[in-house]
Amino acid sequence: MQILIYLGVFVLYTNLADNLAGTPYIILPVVAAFFGFPLIIRLLFRREGITFDRTYQLMLVFLAAAILSTLIAKDQTLALLWILEYVAQGVLLYPLVVNLVRDRASWMRFVRVVMLSASLLGSAAILDNVTGLKVSKALHLTDEEDPTNLRQLARVNATGPGGREVGPIGGPNRFAQILIVLIPLGLCCLKTSKNWTEKIVSAGALLLVLGGVLVTYSRGALLTLMMLAWLLPLFGLLRLRIVVIAGALGIILAPIVAPSLVARLMTLQGVESFFDQDADVGADSSMRGRMTEMLSAFNVFLDHPIIGVGPGQYTKFYSMEYQSDPKIAFRGITKTRRAHCLYLEMAAETGLLGLSVFGALMGFLILGLWEQRRRWLDRDEDLVTMVTAAGLSVVAYLGTAVFLHLSYQRYFWFLVAIAGSALVIARDEEPVEEEDAAPAPITSIMTRDERLIPTLRPDVR
Staple partner for 426: which of 150, 214, 372, 402, CB 3.0–4.6 Å? Predict the structure, then answer.
């Protein structure tokens, strides 16, 4: 049964089923089959109970908030499709993972399979970027031939060495996102390895994932990486001196090895121009477009603050109108565009109600993991590492979500399920209390009448 679960992880994270079939609708039934069959066996034959934790309950509350927003949607069918997507990629996926991964040993195996799957994506992307051999295409680990993605391909120049790699879901920023959130989990695998073979495999997978992030040239991912460089030593997943050495080497070698990456980072200086018209460096076209899209969604939220305009409605019915407002139009955009920010698009479409429930959901999960970290601190180092890594992975996704809307949301809810599973496991484990001082040992002497009489004597040191 375990092999089916691991195949499901591999198919989900590599998006292999969709890329092989050429359609975005095949992967969820395939993953549901891989995960669902072992779960049914456990429930029916092993009589294991089913878990619906607080995180999942809040997901259902978020579903209710989204349904409420649907009532005022201009296009009910479009709103219903958004609801169905959330149900399939979140509401159904989360309990499958949480109820399949019930103890720390299975959790660690599960995460290691995720890391190995992602490392395959990273290694293929690195080879593509360095050699131009199109390894990702040969292994069906990219959808770069998707006819809906031609404009994206032209922009990122993914067809030759040195271009931005698009990964299995057809976009460099999204590819970077699904890789960078695994860095804390990769460090967890490394720290909890029991032998040198596990350490070498875990370290190799982690480096390949990191390399995959770098060849996307994603500015948002690099900013998130800087955030992790501060958080990982702070919470004990990585030694500070390693971060300092890696940072120093990066500063020295990046201009030589990856000048394009440095050039993209330098464009971030243009952010100042949004607040100071006399800034020395202006924002590039991409940044001006992003700011226009974000402010457009924010203004929609201000006009519809309670329950928003309905799921999936912002892009089609509101983006063009609000983007053309000269007060916020840092760049002229002549077509519908999404908000490029999870929080602002969610606020526009589900209002303060949906955004508050989502915030409560994330807050409960992260604070719950933090509480378990405090509970197990100085008691169980491996369990502390596990819940810490799970929490930081979710934080990493939320960091990238400042610059990306909620597309391919199965990756997000899959990560939430991994963190939720870690929370349930840590919560349900009972600490092993230290035994009280051992009583004085009982010895015996033989009396004259050969009767055995127990007596106490001091410890023999």
Answer: 372
Q: Is the pTM of this model over 0.85?
A: yes
103: DSSP letter: S
In this structure, are strands 442-446 and 452-456 parallel, antiparallel, or unpaired? antiparallel
Which of the 8 DSSP states describes residue 338? Answer: -
Q: For a pLDDT cut of 70, what percent of the chain falls above it?
A: 84
Same domain, residue pair 290 and 340: yes
SS3 content of the chain, % helix, strand, coil (to 5): 70, 0, 30
End-to-end Cα separation, the chain, in angstroms: 52
274: burial class by Cβ within 10 Å (0-12, 13-18, 19+)? Answer: middle
- Helices (H), strands (E): how many in the chain? 20, 2
Q: Is the pLDDT of residue 324 over 70?
A: yes
Q: How far apart are CA 112 and CA 99, in angstroms?
A: 18
What pLDDT is attached to residue 193?
94
Same domain, 289 and 424: yes
Query: Cβ atoms within 10 A of the Cβ of 84, count?
Result: 11
Q: What is the dihedral of CA 341, 214, 193, 435, to 10 degrees?
A: -40
| Residue 325 domain boundaries | 51-100+284-428
Decide: helix, strand or coil at residue 48: coil
373, 391 in Cβ contact below 8 A?
A: yes
Instruction: Give the model confidence (pLDDT) of 91-111 as tens digits.
Output: 999 999 999 999 999 999 999
Q: Give residue 25's pLDDT band: very low, low, confident or very high (50, 70, 90).
A: low
Cβ(122)–Cβ(209) below 8 Å: yes
In 3D space, the residue among 174, 118, 179, 157 whose CA is nearest the CA of residue 260 turns out to be 157
Residues 30 and 27: their CA atoms lie apart, in Å, by: 5
Long-range pairs for 329-333 at CB < 8 Å and ≥24 separation? 329/292, 330/274, 330/283, 330/288, 330/289, 330/291, 330/292, 331/285, 331/288, 331/289, 331/291, 331/292, 333/289, 333/292, 333/293
**How many domains is the chain built from?**
2
What is the rounded CA–CA span in Å between residue 234 and residue 227? 11
| Residue 443 three-state SS | strand
Instruction: Report the SS3 class of residue 442.
Output: strand
In a domain, 41, yes or no: no
* Integer Cα distance of 7 and 13 in angstroms: 10
Q: Tokens standing for 216?
A: 């996307």
Q: In this predicted model, what pLDDT tens digit does every residue of 236-290 receive, in sequence order?
A: 999 999 999 988 988 888 777 777 777 777 777 777 666 666 566 667 788 888 8
Asked, for residue 443, whether it belongs to a domain, the answer is no
Are the C-beta atoms of 224 and 399 separated by less than 8 Å? yes
